[in-house]
Amino acid sequence: MSFKFSKKELIFPLLVFITLMVVAVILWNKTLKTQKTLLKNEIQTSGLLRSQEFYTSIENNIKALENLKQRIEMTNGGYFKYWEEDAQLILDQNPSFKFVEWIDSSMVISKITPLKGNEAVVGLDISKLYRAEEWREHSQNSKTNITAWVNLTQGGNAFLVDVPVYFDEKLQGTITAGMDFTNPFNHLASDLDVYAVEIRDENGTIFYAHNNPRPSKFHEDYKYATSFLVDSLDQQKWTFSLMPKHIDMLADRKETMFIAFVFGMLLSIVSSSLIYFYRASRTENKRYKESILKLRELNRDLKKEQLKAQKANRAKTEFVSNMSHEIRTPLNAILGFIEVLKASNIQSSLKEYLALMDISSKKLLLLVDDILEIDKIESGKSTFKNISFSPSKEIANIISIYKPSIEQKGLYLQLDAPDSGICGIGDMGKFGQIITNLLRNALKFTDKGGIHLAYHEKVLENNLLVNLVIKDSGIGIPKNKIKTIFDRFTQVDSGITKKHEGSGLGLYITYNLVKLMGGHIEAESLRNNGTEFQVSLQFPLADYKQNAFKVIDIASEKEADLVGVSVLIVDDNKINVIVLKKALETMGIKAHWVSDGEQAVAEVQKNAYDLVFMDIHMPVMDGLQATKIIRKTNKDIVIMGFSADVTRETIEIALEAGMNDYFTKPISMDKLRQHLSNYLLNVKVS
To answer: So where does this one cross the membrane (predicted)?
Structure first.
């Protein structure tokens, strides 16, 4: 029984789920805000501390020049003789210095360390350069000057730092250095793995960057920016900016928080589900008990319906049996009289009418047989015998029967099959019915040309594989109907103007027989170019071959003299009796007649009969009951069931009752003569 969600039971768990999810969302948002606040504070704190470190580094580097100035001024220029040693010491101790030079009071560069690479500036008069006015102003005020980030005459970029030197109460010149703070700044930023740093001069020129800073990508809350004064006279300021290295610095934190959020959501789902299933299980237990009670009621109703179906099935079987009997009984009389008339001397002009009557009656019989066969197939009552037979011999036998009819229509019949005699185990009758139906179909729709039958067989792993192709030169099948030819009551030329007769049952029966035998059938056709049917079947291989396929007729080996044989006919239909007696008289057989089973029992007890033709459906006492009574006292007499009832159930019951064989009405004279010879010649010989 499938589990169904209850809306009523879902309300409380759903409220629990919503509540837990609201709590989870609130906690998520609160945590996210907290993380953002922490990140902002972290950036501001780190920026403040780092900016101070960078500014201190700048001051310390400039202090080295100012210390040299103080030594020169305190010695009234006496320390100047150590210029080169002190300049080189500053360069060695401070990697931010690119060179140190002396610009005298006449604004000419007279000394520079190191000289190599800087020869171009020795003797250079800076009074003609852009920064001359700035130099004079700072020298007059004895203030250290720091220029913007500039291009150097000797190449490269640097800040020029001028420190004025006074002794003997006048300006002697400036200690000037070219400075690039990249090395000390890199040292300070070496542990800033998650932050980026950017420093600009007063003109907005970026002279230092760490970790590819992108300040425009960040909100102001996630950046730290400050300015520090590097030149008090010019109010010159540098801008320091610190920001996250990645655009979304919260990504890792968000991922951790998201995992926690998902866990909370799953916990909410599990909790609410447990509550739901707990509440729903109680409801389902109650519903389950109610369902058991309903199921018991349904089982009782089902048993009633099964009984009704069984009764209906029995009624259907009885109906088919009765209809078969009622239709075949008059057909038996008609065909019997036709056989008698054909054997008599009648006018030649009437023989043509007699032949037409024979054809029409047999077509009606075929239609009845088809309807009965469909009933067996669709009710699942088709049975298949397992006997040893040769498919190639059976095909040759069928061809020999149909060849005269086909040639009489002006057509040819070509057989391409090996005379192997290899035997398989299966139902020879059903196999023959498949071949016969396909031949009849080809004959019906072919007016010129002929029919070609190709048969191939192969032994594979103790199985006989059979492939059959029947091709005709008839009218063919349109493409839009090729898929429907195996449907029942379907014909190529349907409607009131159709040319070809038939019920449309033959191919439907053939298709189902092939399928029930585990085979395959398909058709290929073109309009006005004929049709080709391909059949594949498989039979277990028998242990021997058939060297002959033709039934050995005992009457052909012995003289079929049946004169003096005594036969009792038990049938309530006088017309059928007349036909059968007339047929037996042509063979020299003397026949007696009674109309019910009770009279038959009395006749067999009084007289010695060689064979009894026993009908099934009769008044007073039926043929089955009469056969059982006769068998109690007479085991040797031959009792032949002879009825228009062709249902499998009736035939099996008849044989179980004690009948030797069972003939269905109508039966041809040739078939009657053959079977009587098989059963009665032994009686004559003895």
So the answer is: 257-278
